[in-house]
Specification:
- Chain A is built from 7 helices and 6 strands; from the N terminus they run αβαββααβαββαα.
- By secondary structure, chain A is of the alpha/beta class.
- Chain A has one domain: CBS-domain (Roll), CATH 3.10.580.10.
- Chain A is flat, with a radius of gyration of 19 Å.
- In chain A, 37% of the residues are buried.
- The relative contact order of chain B is 0.18.
- Chain B has one domain: CBS-domain (Roll), CATH 3.10.580.
Chain lengths: 156, 185
């Protein structure tokens, strides 16, 4: 089966999912940075007491905010978050994630279950991992870091 | 002279047709399931969109770097040394991990203090599959693209990769290997 067909046939649930990080709207940017750093993840969601998404805060937002106001770290997230974007259901094909990423330039895409609850986060990295996973022979055999030439001559 | 000619003739007869073996006869060319796999494995990074790109000096202040990233929607800045060689990369992740919490103290420092030095790079003659591997396994979102002379010729990120994959989505399945071994059209 070709990669193209795999994209159409397999569900989003096959993608490697990352945890959904959440903070309440009165959490500060400083807390958000610490949490994102701890999980090495560039996106978190601002949720109300019932777990409903009110907004998101990403690395991109952090850079915009720092550029605009160096003292942004102590501001509450409710002042700096961006509106949450649409999510994709676990049953949708992998192609749906791919299209969102290609057309809208989205880096993170949240995945919801049938009841609309956020169950994971995927995006550009998840998709690259998926391609590498489904394509092991050609992709995985590539050397990680190689130069075009050798530093030292081989042999005599 | 005559002796030499005779020797040459004998040598020519010895490797006459029956004896000759094509050195590539037991070589199987790679078989791809569809045109997309072919495009990932057989093309080169220079066939992809790797420009526009911009490079910045190592003396750039962190404050200017962040302003530049914010204004132009750059996700990573390629930092070059005085000779124009790649010295490091300053990415969104570096901002999150090294800068954000001490931004006010650090903002006037040069970006070279917090950039990732000697980043993983890809050469323009490498295959797109290698780029996918570096992004997936290595977790590097942006790869500086170098030419054979080690100079920066572009940058490759996930967005450009996605567009490349999409452009080859509907490529026809490659010809079976026997036909593919013929002269290229």
């Amino acid at each position: 089966m070709g990669l193209r067909q795999t994209f159409k046939d397999e569900a989003v649930s096959k993608l490697p999912l990352r945890p959904v990080l959440t903070l309440p709207p009165d959490g500060t940017v400083r807390q958000a940075v610490a949490l994102m750093k701890q999980h090495a993840l560039g996106c978190l969601f601002v949720v109300d007491a019932g777990g409903r998404a009110l907004g998101r805060f990403t690395e991109r937002d952090l850079i915009r905010q720092l550029a605009a106001d160096p003292g942004v770290l102590d501001k509450p997230l409710s002042q700096v978050m961006t509106p949450p974007e649409s999510c994709i259901e676990v049953g949708a094909p992998v192609e749906a994630v791919f299209n969102e990423m290609k057309d809208l330039g989205r880096r993170f895409i949240c995945i919801t279950d049938e009841n609309g609850r956020m169950v994971g986060l995927t995006g550009q990295k998840g998709l690259m991992e998926y391609i590498a996973e489904n394509f092991p022979r050609q992709v995985k055999v590539q050397m990680m870091q190689s130069k075009l030439y050798m530093d030292d001559r081989e042999g005599a | 002279m005559a002796e030499q000619k005779r020797r040459l003739r004998r040598a020519a007869e010895a490797c006459d047709t029956d004896e000759f073996r094509d050195p590539l006869s037991n070589y199987d060319p790679a078989v791809y399931d569809d045109g997309l796999e072919l495009a990932l494995c057989e093309a080169q990074v220079r066939d992809m969109q790797i420009t526009p790109f911009a490079t910045f000096p190592a003396t750039l202040s962190i404050e200017t770097a962040i302003a530049t990233m914010s204004r132009n929607d750059y996700f990573a800045l390629m930092i070059v040394n005085d000779e124009g060689r790649l010295a490091g990369i300053f990415s969104e992740r570096d901002v999150l991990v090294k800068v954000a919490e001490q931004y006010e103290q650090l903002k006037d420092h040069p970006v070279s203090e917090v950039m990732t030095p000697d980043p993983v790079v890809i050469y323009e003659t490498d295959s797109p599959a290698k780029a996918v591997n570096l992004m997936a396994v290595g977790g590097f979102r942006h790869l500086p693209v170098l030419g054979v002379d080690d100079r920066v010729v572009g940058i490759l990120g996930p967005q450009r990769m996605a567009r490349y994959i999409h452009a080859h989505f509907d490529d026809r399945a490659p010809e079976p290997p026997r036909a593919a071994a013929g002269p290229e059209a």
